[in-house]
């Protein structure tokens, strides 16, 4: 009984909206491009970059790097193509640095 009601609701909803009168064809040729950017700001500890190149066949290569909070640098090198998708190689460089133990600030004692 529930299945019949569900099928009837779907059939009514489909009947309310007719099919579009135009064809949805998205045919375009991949266009080659390349870009690169980088940020390095020592006072704020921001250090990262990204670059990518693609060809006329939709295949691309690129990499990006990020300075992690523990002091290491993560570098991702990747390839993309319509058949193989996104394939990444992740590497880490540098040495892990643990955060120092938290020490509460000392304030002078109030005098009464």
UniProtKB/TrEMBL annotation:
<dbReference type="GO" id="GO:0031012">
    <property type="term" value="C:extracellular matrix"/>
</dbReference>
<keyword id="KW-0732">Signal</keyword>
<protein>
    <recommendedName>
        <fullName>Cuticle protein</fullName>
    </recommendedName>
</protein>
<dbReference type="InterPro" id="IPR051217">
    <property type="entry name" value="Insect_Cuticle_Struc_Prot"/>
</dbReference>
<dbReference type="GO" id="GO:0042302">
    <property type="term" value="F:structural constituent of cuticle"/>
</dbReference>
<dbReference type="GO" id="GO:0005615">
    <property type="term" value="C:extracellular space"/>
</dbReference>
<dbReference type="Pfam" id="PF00379">
    <property type="entry name" value="Chitin_bind_4"/>
</dbReference>
<feature type="signal peptide">
    <location>
        <begin position="1"/>
        <end position="15"/>
    </location>
</feature>
<keyword id="KW-0193">Cuticle</keyword>
<dbReference type="InterPro" id="IPR000618">
    <property type="entry name" value="Insect_cuticle"/>
</dbReference>
